[in-house]
Amino acid sequence: MCGECVKSKCPDRGNICLDNGSYILNFAHCAECQKREPIKIAQRNVEVKDDGEEVISYEHKCTHCCHVIAEHEHTFSIEGEYQEYAMYCMLCGVGSDTVSVLPVDPRKEMTLF
Asked: Which biological process annotations from GO are given for this protein (predicted)?
């Protein structure tokens, strides 16, 4: 991973968790060739572990010189009645989210009263 290619290393993205794509606003330029060409995704891999956790990983690369800008990792798992998402990437940032699998999220109902 290259910290010179990004404006901010691992920005906090709150509950945004990308399993594909790139956070272009955080891309300064390629540290190798100094170009600001579109970023390509390479080496995309989807792994499903024995416990059901899904891990998607890929590399953000410069389209012009193939320099690796950042390595991206997205995880998805089910914990009880919730879907858990997490993202870690120097370019796209760090984020996590929890979503209820039920039609009505019990946590949100509790805050109404």
From this structure: fibroblast growth factor receptor signaling pathway; positive regulation of DNA-templated transcription
